[in-house]
Structures are given as structure tokens and as C-alpha cells.
TrEMBL record, chain A:
Protein name per UniProt: Methyltransferase-like protein 5
Similarity comment: family membership: Belongs to the methyltransferase superfamily. PrmA family.
Domain Methyltransferase small: 48-129
GO molecular function: nucleic acid binding; rRNA (adenine-N6-)-methyltransferase activity
From TrEMBL, chain B:
Source species of the chain: Daucus carota subsp. sativus
Official protein name in the record: Uncharacterized protein
Record's subunit section: Interacts with TRM9.
InterPro entries: Trm112 (IPR039127), Trm112-like (IPR005651)
Record family assignment: Belongs to the TRM112 family.
Any single GO BP term: rRNA (guanine-N7)-methylation
Gene Ontology MF annotations: protein heterodimerization activity
Protein origin, superkingdom: Eukaryota
Length: 206, 123
């Protein structure tokens, strides 16, 4: 599938209609989401024929992109059942298969080495401090091949140090720096928060 | 929920030492055909827990998988791959529950989505 085609399909997806502030529910725009998954597949071969998990999948954008790029089995995990219902309808519209589990990522129970790749856009931790790092810690335990994630550029040094020292990562690489326009969903968003610098990371677990 | 997902989900309740495999209570089962991918199946075969898959598929009304872990050589048989593929990826638990093997706690499955949320005192 071509990048443009992927971006177009992701642009047609339904997104949060009543975003929940405390869960940091804002979608990954189709521009960023398509490039994130496209490079995971075309530069690293981490998607096609793989088992992929989407942590905090929301309305499913990242996981569905993985499915469109040929992932064999995709599991979306989110704490919010309303978002999962939207994600499930999105999967049906695209006529792709995606599995869903309602769960707090921090308490995700799994066994074995089945999941190859985790893709995620975790809460940045502006509402609950450390939320982004909690996601990373679990993702690096679950994935056997790679973890793709978005984090604020302002946390770059901290993220790198922490994953290498404490989270079982053997490598941590910023693939690119992006402008993320968090849509002005919430009244309390000051203007400066609307457009923030975000890193796309690729982590490899030990 | 497909049985491949079942084969990796585990109960994570505080104090539970072996939350796998979750027992299936099936109320509604659906089947959806998907294209077979032999390379993927061969790769999965090595990572799966065989007995839980056999048991789960039997609960879901499909009893054609061999009881004991088959030898790798079965992966050359198209007939075996078909059955393995069907059990792993085509049978869905649509409504029912997953039951923690240690505590008996039920995790409901609705519209194909298992609810694995823990209560406060289970974390
Ligand atoms: C920034 S949004 C990203 C949504 C979606 N992945 C996307 O890319 O459009 C973060 C998501 O994480 C979910 N979430 C927040 N805290 C969570 C937790 N502890 N466990 C699971 N999901 C959580 C929210 O419901 C929300 O859908």
C-alpha cells in the first residue's frame, strides 16, 4: 500500500466524539500515524506478517494502520470501552481484522513471546504524571521485536536514560521529530499546547 | 476474540501466580473466514501453548486438533494447517466470559471484547 493511500484511509476514521480529559484522549493525526506505521514496515520490517499490539488504541488509528500494512494479528488495548466500540466500528468500515481488549495497560496480563511489535501514542502524562513511562515499561516487556511510541521532545534525554537503564531496552532511537497538533479539545489548553514537538521513537527490547 | 488472543491473555489479579490459561465460557460463537498464511502459522506454532489451544477450541465447538503436541513435521500437511488456522484465527468468542484458573473470577466478554479491568482490591 502506498503512503498516500494509507493516509487517506486513516483520515476517514471516526475519532473520539466526547474525549475524556483524564485519559488524554486525542487522536494521532492521519499524517503522523501513516508515516509512523509506514516507516515501521518499510524501513524496519516490523509490521507485515507480525503480531502487533496497539497500547491505548483509542479509536484504533495505529493498530488499523498496522492491519492495513499487512500485520497478521492486531490487538488494541484501551481502558475506555466507548473508544473500543468506535475502533471496532472503524475496523468494520475498513474491512480489516483487529482484536480488542479492555484493560488498564499497567495491569495487562499476558504470557509468552507472541507479540512482536507494540505501537502506541501513550498519554503524554500531562494529566497523570508518568503515564507515558508506565506504558513504555509494559510495552518493552510485552514486545519481542520493537516498540514504536511518541513522546514529547522535551523528555528526550529522560526517556533514553530510563529505557536503557530500567526498562529492558537494548536500543532507543529517535526516528524523527514531529510537530503534533494536539487539537484544542479542552478549554484549559493554552495556546502554546496546541502545537508541540514530539519524537517518534523506536525501541528494541533485550 | 480469537483463540490466538486467548493463548496469550492471562489473569493478572494480585496474588495469582499462574493466571494462564483462562477458562472459556462461551455463550455466542461466530466464525469469520480469513486468508491462510502458512509462514505465519509455522512461526506461531513454536510460540503457542498447545493444550490450552486444543481445550479452548473444543469449548468453542471445534474438536479436530490433535490432543497431544504434534511433531513439527505436521506443518507440512495442508490439512493440518487448515485446521490449525481455523482454530487459531477464524473462531471468535463473541459473548461469554474468561475465567481466572486460580480464583474463578470472571472477566466478561461482550461484542467480542474481553473486559480484563481489575477491581481496586485486585491490583
Ligand atoms: C493520546 S490517546 C491515543 C489514541 C490512539 N492510540 C490514537 O493514536 O489515536 C491515548 C489513549 O490511551 C488511553 N488510555 C489512557 N490511560 C490508559 C491506561 N492506563 N490503560 C489503557 N489505556 C489508557 C486513552 O483512553 C486514549 O485512548
Amino acid at each position: 500500500m502506498k503512503l498516500k493511500q494509507l493516509e487517506g484511509l486513516l483520515g476517514s476514521l471516526e475519532q473520539f466524539s466526547h474525549p475524556k480529559i483524564e485519559l488524554e484522549q486525542y487522536p494521532t493525526g492521519h499524517h503522523i500515524a501513516s508515516r509512523m506505521l509506514f516507516s515501521a514496515e518499510n524501513s524496519f520490517g516490523d509490521i507485515g506478517d507480525k503480531v502487533v499490539a496497539d497500547f491505548g488504541c483509542g479509536c484504533g488509528t495505529l493498530g488499523l494502520a498496522a492491519a492495513l500494512l499487512g500485520a497478521e494479528h492486531v490487538i488494541g488495548v484501551d481502558i475506555d470501552v466507548e473508544s473500543l466500540a468506535v475502533a471496532s466500528a472503524n475496523a468494520e468500515d475498513l474491512e480489516v481484522d483487529m482484536e480488542f481488549v479492555q484493560c488498564d495497560v499497567r495491569n495487562f496480563g499476558w504470557r509468552g513471546q507472541i507479540i512482536d511489535t507494540v505501537v502506541m501514542n501513550p498519554p503524554f502524562g500531562t494529566r497523570r504524571k508518568g503515564a507515558d513511562m508506565d506504558f513504555l515499561s509494559v510495552a518493552l516487556k510485552v514486545a519481542s521485536q520493537a516498540v514504536y511510541s511518541l513522546h514529547k521532545t522535551s523528555t528526550r534525554d529522560y526517556v533514553k536514560r530510563t529505557v536503557l537503564r530500567d526498562y529492558n531496552a537494548s536500543s532507543a532511537e529517535v526516528i524523527c521529530e514531529l510537530r503534533y497538533d494536539v487539537p484544542k479539545l479542552y478549554k484549559f489548553h493554552k495556546k502554546k499546547e496546541v502545537d508541540i514537538a514530539v519524537d517518534l521513537w523506536r525501541f528494541v527490547p533485550k | 476474540m480469537k483463540l490466538l488472543t486467548h493463548n496469550m491473555l492471562s489473569s493478572n489479579i494480585k496474588g495469582v501466580t499462574n493466571g494462564f490459561p483462562l477458562k472459556i465460557e462461551a455463550e455466542k460463537i461466530i466464525e469469520r473466514p480469513v486468508e491462510i498464511n502458512p509462514v505465519f502459522l509455522k512461526n506461531m506454532f513454536a510460540k503457542l501453548e498447545w493444550k490450552p489451544l486444543v481445550e479452548a477450541s473444543r469449548t468453542m465447538g471445534f474438536s479436530e486438533l490433535p490432543e497431544d503436541v504434534p511433531d513439527m513435521s505436521v506443518l507440512d500437511s495442508d490439512e493440518f494447517l487448515q485446521k490449525f488456522h481455523h482454530a487459531l484465527l477464524e473462531i471468535h468468542l463473541e459473548e461469554g466470559a474468561l475465567v481466572c484458573p486460580e480464583t474463578g473470577r470472571k472477566f466478561p466478554v461482550q461484542k467480542g471484547i474481553p473486559n480484563m479491568m481489575l477491581h481496586e482490591d485486585e491490583v
